[in-house]
User: What shape does this take?
Amino acid sequence: MSTVHWIWLQETLGAGSNKLQALLSRFDGPKALFEADEAALRHAGCLRDAELQKLLRRDLRPAEEIMEACRQSGYGILTPDDASYPKRLLRIFNPPLTLYVCGELPDIDEEVAITIVGPRRATEDGVRAAYRMAGELARAGCLLVSGGAMGIDGAAHRGALKAGGKTVAVLGGGLDQIYPKGNAELRKEIAGHGCLLSEYPPGT
Assistant: This one.
């Protein structure tokens, strides 16, 4: 299947839309959805009129621009029909149709993946505990996953990196959005020893 159609579908209805899986259960992939006529889309029975009209515009240009932005920045794009798309994600209720990657995505299906997350305004004790736990887990061979934020998230990533481990930061915006600014260098380190991961395209 075509990457551009996966991006088109996710961007048309929005990342996290509960309509995405409902539609894909009725059509043979995003390209079939792109080519479906109005009657077929209405027959799906899950679309509001505004959503239906968005799909019927059949405008691939925004998706093509996203692909070009990723190409220029060296970001990878994963969709559910890619062999390296994590199978664990496909088993959740509403998996993302596109994942944008900066760095090298570890084999999440084979790794023991542990998430450490917590408040941005963390106590000193909390930061030390997250750093220490992440380091111990990384030395034991675990993959550390967190959100790339200040506070507990940043401490967990740093602890894993200091221990020579791999870590993944799942971001709440596009890969090109350096937020928080104070973690800019940390993000570079994460991308070099794991990856930055987002379901949102560059510019978001």
